[in-house]
What does this fold into?
Amino acid sequence: MNRPRSLTAVVLAAAALTLSACGDPVVGTVTAKEHDAAETKHGTRKDCTTSTSSTGTKTTKCKTVPTTTHEAEEWELTVAEDDGDTVEVGVAQEVYDRVEVGDRYDEAAEAAR
It folds into this structure.
């Protein structure tokens, strides 16, 4: 199935490349893949204000306010690096779909694609 690349995937891929730019590119063998679906959570919080009258009486008024948090969809590879370290790398969906457990992963080569 051919799906359009989501803005979230683009942002995640850019963030992963930016973070990895601080160190050496990840090179090694893919040992696991993990996909976290996007999730939206709804809740409430109390929003309170306190006022003081001219006579010094404090009044607090509270109202319940709805809240929403959204966690973006994520695709991650666990890579056993050649130096023995194991790292998790956030990747774009198309990289996740193409790479299989046991494949060699080279972050610099993926960035050049």
In short: Residues 1-5, 17-21 have pLDDT under 50 and may be disordered. The first strand starts at residue 27 and ends at 36. The chain has three helices and six strands.
